[in-house]
Amino acid sequence: MRVIVNHYKTIRYFIMGLVLSRMAMGCLDRPDCVFEGDNRIEINFLRLEEVDDELRNVQDTLIFQRIYALNSNALYAFQDTIFTPFILLINPNDTVTTFVFERLSGTDTLVLNYDSRPGFVSENCGFNIELTNMEVARHTFDSLKVNNLDLEIKNIINFEVIN
Amino acid sequence: MLMACQVFAQEEEAKRAVKEVLPDSLKPDFIPSGIRLGTDLIAIGKTFAKPQYTELELNIEIPIHKYFVVVDLGTWDVSRGSEFSTYSSTGNYFRAGLDMDFFWKDLTDESSIFFGFRYGRSRYSDALYYYYNDIAWETDGQIRLVNNQVTARWFEITSGLKVPVYKGLWMGFTARLKLGLKITGDDLHASYEVPGYGKTIKNTWWGFNYQVFYNIPFRK
């Protein structure tokens, strides 16, 4: 007991440290549902047009019979007129996705490769699949401009098809 | 010349006198005074309180002058998750390093406020199970991925306090700033927790240990 009394000041700091550290731990324990991965890509169709004696890329309007991904029943377009950028979803449970663009004039494909890596996020948030290192494996468009292959960067058009 | 020699001799004598009055408790003594064996009370508390959580840690400290050679050995078996996704990791770890008592007064001063560093290493296996149901891809199923031989290393900057509370018994806490985590072998899925380090979601991470030690003295 005498020892405790002799170290009263130190013990006071000790208890203070316990309380402060416990408070800090409480803040750190809170899970944050931050999902870094995203499986959305955005594609746009453009055409070269002469504007004021200058060739520029302008928004194209195309009629698609179908736009779909192989091994998926998801149909992104069916006899639709596409005149804005639109979103496609790559398969998070695979490392390759093939998109098929069917028009009356012909069919084009876009094949994307990427790494898929699942990870646990927290008890409340579950798991997340992080998709990285995306690359265009092949395509059949006349001209494809790649703007962004990083799926973490959002609100940017990933690909531009120029007719 | 003779005067100069006399002054020098007087100075030497004065220095010797100061040395002679230094008490034994203030003289540097680099022979270990004992060994302290301890454990982390948080780990024990969590092991009893939480289901599917086992963590036990042995803390070894050797006080040398105002320094402590520190080795922590631990074992870990933790599962967490929900109905649709669970993560479990099982393995062992160690941390080794040195603490320095910054308010050391003399050998009789038993309390310490210290700063130090650690090198940590962990060897473990971890498993991720999840159920997925992707409407767009019309796929669903259960996946279980196991990384069998994962190793991790990290560094820690430590600070804390230790006080004697009863004969031979010390209590204290250690705050740890963990950084420089490097994991190898987590090929199939990302490691969520590393035994001895904790959650991997941030590059630097805080940790705390509340410890109790028993001192086994080497000499009186």
Main attributes of the structure:
heterodimer, A: 163 residues, alpha+beta, five-stranded mixed β-sheet, five-stranded antiparallel β-sheet, 2 helices, B: 220 residues, mainly beta, eight-stranded antiparallel beta barrel, two-stranded antiparallel ribbon
Largest sheet of chain B: 8 strands, antiparallel, barrel
Instruction: Write the H/E string of chain A, N to C.
Output: HHEEEEEEEEEE
Shape of chain B: elongated
In terms of DSSP E residues, the strand content of chain B is: over 45%
Mean pLDDT of chain A: 81
Q: Structural class of chain B, please?
A: mainly beta
Count of runs of 4 or more consecutive helical residues of chain B: 2
Largest sheet strand order of chain B: 1-2-3-4-5-6-7-10
Residue runs with pLDDT of under 50 for 5 or more positions of chain B: none
Classify the helix fraction of chain A into a percent range. 10-25%
**Largest chain interface and its two residue counts?**
A-B, 33 and 38 residues
Largest sheet of chain A: 5 strands, mixed
Helix content of chain B: 10-25%
Gyration radius of chain A, in Å: 27 Å
- Termini separation of chain B: 50 Å
Rg of Cα set of chain B? 25 Å
Q: Which spans of chain A of ≥5 residues are poorly predicted at pLDDT below 50?
A: none
Number of helices of chain A: 2
The total strand number of chain A stands at 10
Give the termini distance of chain A in whole angstroms. Answer: 88 Å
* Global morphology of chain A: elongated
Commentary on this structure:
The complex is a heterodimer of chains A (163) and B (220). Chain A is an alpha+beta fold and 163 residues long. Chain A has two helices and ten strands, in the order ααββββββββββ. In chain A, the strands form two sheets. In chain A, strands 1, 2, 5, 9 and 10 form a five-stranded mixed β-sheet that branches. A five-stranded antiparallel β-sheet of chain A has the order 4-3-6-7-8, with no helix packed on it. Chain B is mostly beta strands. Helix content of chain B is 13%, strand content 61%. Chain B has helices spanning 2-21, 41-49, and strands spanning 34-40, 53-64, 67-81, 85-101, 112-134, 139-166, 169-184, 193-194, 198-199, 205-217.
